[in-house]
Amino acid sequence: VQLQAYGGGLVQTGGSLRLSCTASRRTASNNGMGWFRQVPGKEREFVASISWRGDMTDYADNVRDRFTISRDNAKNTVYLQMNSLKPEDTAVYYCAVSRSSYSGRGLQSYQYWGQGTLVTVSS
Asked: Is the pLDDT of residue 28 over 70?
């Protein structure tokens, strides 16, 4: 079971980044997926999720209208397009595979986790 997240980096306030996360076929073909983020000293928090068909999405209030989650099941990849980035978006971003065809907001809804990719937004 492997999840490879990439696309993080340093960007200025107001800039954009697109994160990608590729999963091995057997783990993600019928499962929802999600993105979480974490800063040192704080709990990992929900960012966005998407059902396995891609027809249902959910966003945390503080990223709604700025971030967009999508997926390409043919490539076993989920994306997180992040626009209008703010310094408070700075964190390590993790992708995860849900235990079911849909995805919830709780950490316990996910069974597999990627290693994380660092996003730094400078002011």
From this structure: no
